[in-house]
Design goal:
Number of strands: 8
Structural class: alpha/beta
Strand content: 5-15%
Order of helices and strands: HEHEHEHEHHEHEHEHEH
CATH class of the largest domain: Alpha Beta
Bound molecules: zinc ion
Radius of gyration: 20 Å
Number of domains: 2
Shape: globular
CATH topology of the largest domain: Rossmann fold
Helix content: 25-40%
CATH superfamily of the largest domain: Nitrogenase molybdenum iron protein domain
Length: 308
């Protein structure tokens, strides 16, 4: 059993210390028993990277997600087992700036930072007014790059190269699967581009400012109520956004599953708008990355009044 393994069973494995790991290049960890088939263990810090690593790694790697389903990833704290897991992993796939705890714990020589694979966008414009404790302030760029499938396709290609270097015996498999994954993401990108071409409004009012890459790619304009899902926006910020939403003809305020809909509902009633769930994919969706992005497309088309 490989990629079929859900995050809850991954968490179960982490909790019972039965997780076997092996270093990719057969380096010094002699006391670690080899995992079944001697597959390199790859730790993926957040769901979209876990999905991507499973696609690219295929049956050649054992992928473990670090953030359990339903957990808001930005404020992840690492338990002893997770720290051990990071230490033993042949490779950790992460995005610097999403999770400060992970940024501090990763080994530079055995990690792949997806933010280095793509052109990043600057952090949200009200970043400086927001809480200091939030992960996003650790870096000057917006870390939510997985919400642009074309950038994620580039990450897939570079991850394939990285895995091929870490596990040269299976290099061709990694490269082939990376190419296939990049092509799949390219198709998704085209669907989004086509579906969001002709819309009544192009303004997205979101609960937390996670959709900057999606907005940039498909020529939408994101107005985030907060940068940080944990921070309550100030009344000033709410009335500022309400004014803007009215001016732009916004009919829907987007909320997300891990964030309380309260603020979005207050705002929606001020504007006379509805609320709808737009998934930033910071935790595992009901389906997978592709189906959740297609659901997001449908939600956006309805909310923005797109004809395609
Ligand atoms: Zn976020």
């Amino acid at each position: 059993m490989m990629s079929g393994f859900s995050r809850s069973s991954a968490a179960g494995l982490l909790a019972g210390a039965a997780l076997l790991t092996v270093a990719a290049c057969g380096s010094g960890s002699a006391e670690t028993a080899p995992a079944a088939g001697g597959k390199p263990e790859v730790v993926a810090a957040i769901y979209p990277l876990q999905w991507l690593t499973e696609q690219v790694g295929g049956s050649d790697t054992q992928v473990t997600g670090l953030t359990a389903p339903g957990v808001e990833p930005h404020d992840l704290e690492l338990g002893i087992q997770q720290v051990t897991d990071l230490k033993n992993a042949a490779l950790t796939v992460y995005i610097k700036g999403v999770q400060p705890a992970v940024d501090d714990a990763v080994d530079a020589d055995k990690s792949f930072d997806a933010a280095t694979a793509v052109t990043t966008l600057p952090a949200g414009e009200h970043a400086e007014e927001e809480g200091e404790e939030h992960g996003h302030e650790e870096v000057s760029y917006d870390p939510h790059l997985w919400l642009d499938p074309s950038r994620l396709a580039t990450v897939a290609t570079k991850l394939g190269e990285r895995l091929a270097t870490a596990d040269p015996a299976h290099a061709q498999g990694y490269k082939d699967r990376a190419a296939k994954t990049a092509a799949t993401l390219g198709t998704l990108d085209q669907e989004l581009a086509k579906g969001l071409t002709t819309c009544k409004t192009k303004t997205l009012v979101t609960a937390h400012e996670a959709f900057g890459y999606l907005a940039e790619r498909y020529k939408l304009k994101q107005v985030g109520i907060t940068l940080d899902p944990e921070t309550e926006p100030s009344p000033t910020r709410i009335s500022e956004v309400a004014k803007l939403a009215k001016a732009e003809g916004v009919t829907t305020i987007f909320t997300e599953s891990l964030v309380s809909p309260k603020v979005a509902e207050v705002l929606a009633s001020q504007v006379g708008a509805k609320t709808a769930v737009l998934d930033p994919l910071e935790t595992k969706p009901a389906g997978d990355y592709l189906s959740a992005m297609r659901d997001n497309l449908k939600t956006l088309q309805t909310a923005l009044g797109c004809t395609a």
